[in-house]
Task: structure prediction
Amino acid sequence: MKIAFFEIKGWEKPYLKKYLKGHELKFVKEPLKKDNIQEAKGFDIVSVFIYSKVDKNVLAALPKLKGITTRSTGFDHIDIKTAKKKGVAVCNVPTYGANTVAEHTFALILALSRNVHKSYVRGLKGDYSIEGLKGFDIKGKTLGVIGTGHIGLHVIKIARGFGMKVLAYDIKQHGFVQECLGFRYASLDELLSGCDIISLNCPENKDTHHLINKKSIKKIKKGAFLINTARGGLVDNDALIEALDKGILAGAGLDVIEGEDLIKEEKQLLYDEKKSEAMAELVKDHILLSRDDVVFTPHIAFYSREALLRIIETTAQNIRCFAEKSGMCNRVC
Ligand code: NAI
Result:
């Protein structure tokens, strides 16, 4: 099999070479996009991460493609409908980092509850004062978890360990787990209005895009905190800025942010056809990132030593499955 890996880091190559002996491998540092499509031409499988955009045009330009493996849980960067129509199998890594992302969710929650980020910045300036740094206990507070899948359930487990009450919202409910972990499912409105901290842990799709928008954000309990470790597109940046300005939200912990790929590729925007639209989104991102009521990490919730190894192992396993049995292990289509 000929396999082209995009968005690949140096340390990943020896592992992939070891696990995929006998296959022809190509490694590309950049994401797969329409402007470097030639790098994938003639390959049976492409392996991507989330900054690759495998859309209709990319799929049309790769007629020989048989499979796509994304080295992520989310697959909103791949046009699944078109892939399915063209008979291109798509697989992901469904469970590499449920605890990893849940732990990062709490890194953001605790940074906000105890003003870790503000204290750090003061310390760098040699300022040891404590004015304005009073935090709050999370014990006894109510956490709202939107999406009780692999990650959401880990978030709930950790929250219960901290002595938090938990309300959850999901389109599919796990009654037994609810009993075991000691949380309660609620409607989205009840969750928004009844929680001190809200954690987004559902995928981004057409139903969840801008789930947190100008209308829904008004239902949030005044002074609550919003944590997003899922996908930036779940939250409308305009609504978030307004809610922070008006004190509806007391703060936000963001590992993902709408338009985060623009921040990475700021310089390339100069050549973008949809420049003004992209620039507007970028400005909003910069406004959010410079606020001291926002804790931001650059999409690293998954980025632990253990999780990265699990991603590589599962990706290799997916490819071997595909090569040997004509079927992928973790197929999403
Ligand atoms: P999962 O598929 O196990 O769980 C997702 C849950 O969301 C399911 O229970 C599903 O029923 C629920 N859901 C779907 N649509 C919903 C809706 N409209 N409203 C409420 N709930 C809904 O996925 P997992 O592994 O828990 O991951 C969740 C998301 O976290 C991924 O889709 C991905 O976008 C994001 N993620 C972020 C990472 C990061 O580094 N920041 C790393 C890994 C995942």
